[in-house]
Structure formats: structure tokens, C-alpha cells
Amino acid sequence: MQPVDVRPVGETEMLILWPDGHRSLYAQRYLRFQCHCAQCIEEWTGRQLISLDQVDSDVHALNISPVGNYAVKFQWSDGHSTGIYSYELLRGICPCKECAAKGPAS
Ligand SMILES: [Zn+2]
Ligand SMILES: [Zn+2]
Description:
With 106 residues, the chain is α+β, with helices and mostly antiparallel strands. It has helices spanning 28-33, 87-92, 97-102; strands at residues 5-9, 13-17, 23-27, 61-67, 71-76, 84-86.
């Protein structure tokens, strides 16, 4: 599912509007932490190589660019920009109550 809109809300949050009317509001720091690039996630085990403590508390996206029609790329203020966030991943980590109740998307 391709979002209708991906936009920062101030410097700390990121809003994604989905075509089914769902709204996902993420802390930008949380999104930075959820980066799935090879530096942040061990490819074979899916183990996270960074901890939330290591992510700057004021990290925010300087630039947002779509990748094809399946993902988006954030250029983070800490210089990290190798992560590609698929829309599937983003929807799966939506922190709202409704999604949290359903559990992670499989
Ligand atoms: Zn990364
Ligand atoms: Zn949600």
C-alpha cells in the first residue's frame, strides 16, 4: 500500500497518510532506530545492531525521497541515509493503538 502523504510534523514526528484513511504518527527518532540497512540490522538474523540509546534524541529527517513505488528513503540529520523503508515495514511498525493491538504485520 502506497501512502498518500509522508510528511514531517515539526522536527520530532513523521506523519504518514494511507489510502485506506489510516494515519500513522511516528517519532522520527523511532523511525531512525527502525532503519533496516546492513549497518543497522544483521541481514541473516534480523537482529538490530543499534540500540535506541545510540540514536540522537533530536535526530530528524532532512530529506524524504520515494524509492520506486514501494519504499521511501530518509536522509537523517545524524548523517545516516542508507536505509530504505518499505511501505510494508512502515505500516507494520505503526505505533497507534489500533495497530499495536493487531500485533506486527506478518
Ligand atoms: Zn541504517
Ligand atoms: Zn496504525
